[in-house]
Structure formats: structure tokens, C-alpha cells
Structure to design on (286 residues):
């Protein structure tokens, strides 16, 4: 996960209480970290929300992976926002979401996006891992856990 | 993408002799049900691979049938009724997958699920759901 999550854009406590608010906050964090121009934020938020309209990316277990493509990025980027109180996300299991992984990929590179999805789904199988992440209070605490999480090997 | 039964073919029923004195000479002995799963090889045609939307839609479609569904990529096999599990395959465009369907609805489900897994777009897959 350390290969695609942007450390400086991690949000230990999302202020937002809605899906769109959380997405906006996370895209804003990536912009602050230098990955978007301020003028691009609305377009990215709009694209992520359009994707949500096709079906929620709340995959269950309190995890959501909102995502979109955006031209001009150097590589796939992502960030993680924690919502200890839970955010309604229309998830597959109806549960509120406490971990929001936002991914923005290059339109011409499906491989990194597929592997990022694989990675997040794999770590989401561990309740212990999710609980540890959700309990983090600072960016450094989140990053320490992310650094030790195994990245999936590529067999393609 | 040929469909074929796994395992050996069932034996042909033995022909009944005409004057066996069998009180019920008409009905042949029923064949034992062939319980081996049906299989198809499917190539991922979606240009973005088996990403979240096609994975979720495929799992939903598979859930409509009274079957167990396995999707295999090389030596990794996952439950085809779980969108999350399908995402673990990280199947790129052009990847060859083995679809394995077993159970009561297998014969009906196999062609539909084969088309779904090989669908070039998530929209095409959604159309199969409706």
C-alpha cells in the first residue's frame, strides 16, 4: 500500500459526515499534497461521485474504495481517511464506513488500479488489521501500519 | 471458449434384451446424475480488466443461480459469487480465466456467466443482470 498511498494526504479524522463530503476532503488532501491543481479538485470530485452513482464502492466491513481516473497524474495515487463515527456510504452490507480509501488512476494504466484494489481487499479480510488502522490518531500511526502491510505480488 | 464436462463421460446404459420378462421393459434405467462441474475458459475482454464494477456485477449475476461458481486464474481460485474475492484475482485484459459452475442450474448458468465474465464492458454485464 505504501507504493500508492500518499503519506502527506492521509486524513486521520475526517471532518465530513457524508459520502460526498469525505470524497471532497480526500481529494482536497491529495491536492494539498501537490498532486492536483486547485482548479482540478471539482472535476475529480465530480468524477468520483459519478462512479459512485453507478454503484457504491462500499465493499463492506466498514471499507469503501471510491475511485476515478484522471489524466496527467504521474502514477496511480491514493489516500486513506478515517471516520471513527462512521459515514453512510450505501455499502454492500449496509454498514457505515470507517475507512475510506480514495484512488485516482491514470486512464491508460489499468494494472496498478487492479493491484491497488487487490491490496485493499486483501487487507480488508483481516478484522485485526482494520481495527488497528481505524484506531490510529495520527498520520504517522497510519503510515507505520501501511508500511508493514504486504503489497501483493504481481503474477501478470 | 468451448464448454465441456469435467471428468469422464457416463457409461452408456446397457441395452435391454427384448424378451427379458421384465414387467417394465419400456423405460431405460435412468442414468446417474452427472455431478461433475461444467467448465469454460474465458478471456477477460474489458479493457480495464476485472475491476470493481464488473467484479461486483458478475458476483450479483452468479448469485441468481442455484450453483457454486469458482473463477480460477492460474493456481488461484476464488468464489465467483463474491465481488471482493474476484477483485483478488486482479485480472488484467487478456487474462485467461477458468470458470467452473456446479449445481442444479449449472447448464443454464454457464453460458450466461461465460458471456458475463468475457464482457468487454461493465455496461454489457449490467445488461445481463436486467
Amino acid at each position: 500500500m505504501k507504493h500508492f498511498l500518499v503519506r502527506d494526504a492521509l486524513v486521520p479524522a475526517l471532518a465530513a459526515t457524508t459520502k460526498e463530503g469525505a470524497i471532497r476532503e480526500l481529494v482536497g488532501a491529495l491536492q494539498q499534497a501537490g498532486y492536483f491543481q486547485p482548479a482540478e479538485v471539482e472535476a475529480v470530485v465530480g468524477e468520483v461521485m459519478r462512479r459512485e452513482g453507478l454503484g457504491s464502492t462500499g465493499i463492506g466491513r466498514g471499507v469503501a474504495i471510491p475511485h476515478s481516473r484522471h489524466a496527467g497524474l504521474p502514477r496511480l495515487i491514493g489516500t486513506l481517511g478515517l471516520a471513527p463515527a462512521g459515514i453512510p456510504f450505501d455499502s454492500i452490507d449496509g454498514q457505515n464506513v470507517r475507512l475510506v480509501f480514495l484512488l485516482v488512476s491514470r486512464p491508460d494504466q489499468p494494472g496498478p488500479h487492479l493491484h491497488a484494489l487487490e491490496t485493499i481487499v486483501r487487507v480488508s479480510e483481516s478484522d485485526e488489521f482494520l481495527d488497528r488502522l481505524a484506531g490510529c490518531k495520527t498520520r504517522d500511526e497510519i503510515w507505520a501500519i501501511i508500511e508493514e502491510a504486504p503489497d501483493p505480488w504481481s503474477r501478470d | 471458449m468451448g464448454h465441456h464436462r469435467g471428468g469422464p463421460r457416463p457409461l452408456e446404459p446397457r441395452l435391454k434384451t427384448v424378451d427379458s420378462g421384465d414387467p417394465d421393459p419400456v423405460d431405460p434405467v435412468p442414468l446417474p446424475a452427472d455431478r461433475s462441474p461444467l467448465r469454460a475458459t474465458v478471456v477477460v475482454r474489458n479493457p480495464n480488466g476485472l475491476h470493481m464494477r464488473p467484479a461486483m456485477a458478475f458476483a450479483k449475476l452468479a448469485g441468481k443461480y442455484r450453483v457454486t461458481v469458482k473463477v480460477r486464474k492460474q493456481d488461484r481460485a476464488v468464489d465467483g459469487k463474491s465481488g471482493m474475492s474476484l477483485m483478488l484475482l486482479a485480472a488484467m485484459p487478456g487474462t485467461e480465466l477458468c470458470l467452473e459452475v456446479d449445481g442444479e442450474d449449472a447448464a443454464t448458468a454457464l453460458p450466461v456467466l461465460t458471456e458475463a465474465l468475457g464482457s468487454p464492458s461493465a455496461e454489457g454485464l449490467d445488461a445481463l443482470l436486467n
Observations:
- The mean pLDDT of chain A is 93.
- The interface with chain B takes residues 54-55, 57, 59-60, 65, 67, 92, 110-111, 113-115, 117-118, 121-122, 124, 152, 154-156 of chain A (CB under 8 Å).
